[in-house]
Design goal:
Length: about 55
């Protein structure tokens, strides 16, 4: 192949395995999904700190 995808796959696995934003989303509760998405948006890279955001 022209491109070795192993480094890309490793980076994705590392991000989802170690990121503070990586968590399982409860798909049975729509409000839980909205809360999860709000956390991703506010606390993501370059976002607010947990203390300044006022989230749980």
């Amino acid at each position: 192949t022209l491109i070795n995808i192993r480094p890309v796959v490793a980076a994705i696995k590392e991000f989802f395995g170690t990121s503070q934003l990586s968590q399982f989303m409860d798909q049975n509760n729509p409000l839980s999904g909205l809360t999860h998405k709000r956390r991703l948006w506010a606390l993501g890279p370059g976002g607010l700190s947990r203390e300044r955001a006022g989230l749980e």
